[in-house]
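Lab channel / #folding
Pinned by the channel admin:
"Please post every new chain as: sequence first, then the structure tokens as a reply. Keep commentary short and put observations after the output so the thread stays searchable."

First post following the new format, from NK:
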Amino acid sequence: MSILANQPWQSQPPSWRLLLSHPLHCLSFGLGTGLSPKAPGTVGTLLGFPLYWLLMHLPLAQQWLSLGVLFLLGIWCCEVTGRALGVSDHGAIVWDEVVAMAAVLITVPLTLAWGLAAFASFRLFDIWKPFPIGWVDRRVKGGLGVMLDDVLAAVMAVLVLQLAQRLL
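Reply from TO:
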């Protein structure tokens, strides 16, 4: 997949030193949010809000296209960082949460309440991992596995939020 993916990596713990050693690690660690000592996935998810704000002025098709590109980039960077850490889906890797959260935000009205609902529902499905999220999480490894289970959590969150929008 890349010249970096074929390099031999010595396993090392997540750190600012590793983050600063390569731009792919910086993305994987969500610009440092993944290095939070508590709840790195939740802290990393918050980075989805500024990503959405950067994209929200684009036409809708370009927003989705941008997220598609960031998803593909995520497969690569999460694979490289997982190899460096010696753990395929280390908790410090949060780029998957960042991209998935921005995707959920595209589907809800631009209000504080809907933003909070999007955050809560995405985190619920990402942590709970009902079928098929848990199945993918256990069986698909590497960068694709890291990114794919969060996309599924985002899809389930979007379905719940779309239903809520119709009922309210």
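NK: The CA atoms of residues 23 and 77 lie 9 Å apart.
TO: also worth noting, The two ends are 46 Å apart (CA to CA).
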